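Lay summary. Proteins are chains of building blocks that fold into shapes, and those shapes determine what they do. In this project we predict the shape from the chain. Here is one chain we studied, written as its sequence of building blocks.
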Amino acid sequence: MPRLSNPKAGVRKVYKVLVVDDEDLVVEVLRELLSELPYTVVTTTDPAKAIQILKLWEIAVLVCDLNMPQIDGVEVMVRAREANPDIISIMVSGVADQESIVRAVNEGGVWKFLFKPWNSRQLTELVDEGVKRYMKTRGPSENLERLAHNVTAQLKDDDESGAAKRPAIRVIKRERKTAGLEKTADIGTSRYRLGDVLGAGGTGTVYKAEDLLMGMPVAIKVLSSRFAEDQIAIDLLKDEARIAMQLSHRHIVRLHNLEKVGGKYFLVMEYVEGRNLREILQIYGKLPTETVMQMAEVSADALAYAHRHGVIHRDLKPDNILLTEDGVLKIIDFGIAGLMHAGATQGPVMGTPMYMSPEQLAGKPLNERTDIFSFALILYELLTGRPPFEEPVDTAALRAARQPQIVGLPEPVARILRKAVAHDPNERWASVSEFASNFVTATSSAVYGR
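And here is the predicted shape, written in a compact code that computers can read:
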């Protein structure tokens, strides 16, 4: 198996903090105060200019006054969230009524609220903590960047050497397909031009496409024709797609729209250049512990965000988690859970039974703990290189009756995973955040003694 190199050792990203206040003196004081921190501090007294800065630059922490002429602080924070959903916002104000505070929280997504005059040390520590919170979910992980670099380099080396490719590499090198479904899938709309096939499964075929109206690449999933004839499945899909389209998270591939042309339904999604974890496992076998820990934290943050918005994935597996070329994890296929559910309750089980929870295989009602079950099996496979079930399981019923064997790991780590894959959902961790936190703590302690 190839080894991971570190092409960016010693390189550290410098995060930006934006300060917005209409008083020159306040801006100068804050600039001087925050200059002690290892971040780039950008300041402005013009909220309109601040909005432009937020569009142009990646801002980790926004420190913003509430009461400003023409454009108030809440509006700036709303625009900040549109530009970067993960931004950490700190509201500073001399006077604020209850209604303003509620608006700041509900509309602006404010993280902390400080009243003037503020304590210098408290504000500095708060900004520092805010950047560190941002780094956990948004900041590029050195280990994930290294992994992405090595995957790309490995494929390039294989191409240049002309050596016989392993099956995994052949899977990764997707070939252009333009016959059959590709030619008929776009009949009736001139907005999208379909290109290469990116993947295919039980629910449909995914293409790289171009949105000719917006002039941007997108991914289009053309649903299997059998779903167009299943009104229950389509109704479920519409319900879940409406919610999934509202998800805006750095680590979730965005669902733009559900469309119908003639008798075909298709999902229009954000296009991401990357490799899925199944492909990466086929290259490396298993991944470094530190890398898996970071994947756990990032993925759990995305899943927790979706769960808070009432969206359950239902088909988590290595194939549905992508790593972009710059080391950003992205979870795909949010929004098609309605199809998975319809398939599980009305016909053959849809999805990948190896990673599905017992209650899902049995067609029972689901909650977020079904995702915890699947997520735990993925982490186990990333750490050990072994699938959750070593022997093939012929039917969903047999698979539902079996308990995954968690072996080959330090006992504290194995214990955390076993709780996550308990047969009874009520015996699992209460939330994906709780599970990931305990997993990372146990893994770090077992490996590094900390």
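What the prediction tells us: Residues 141 and 327 are 7 Å apart (CA to CA).
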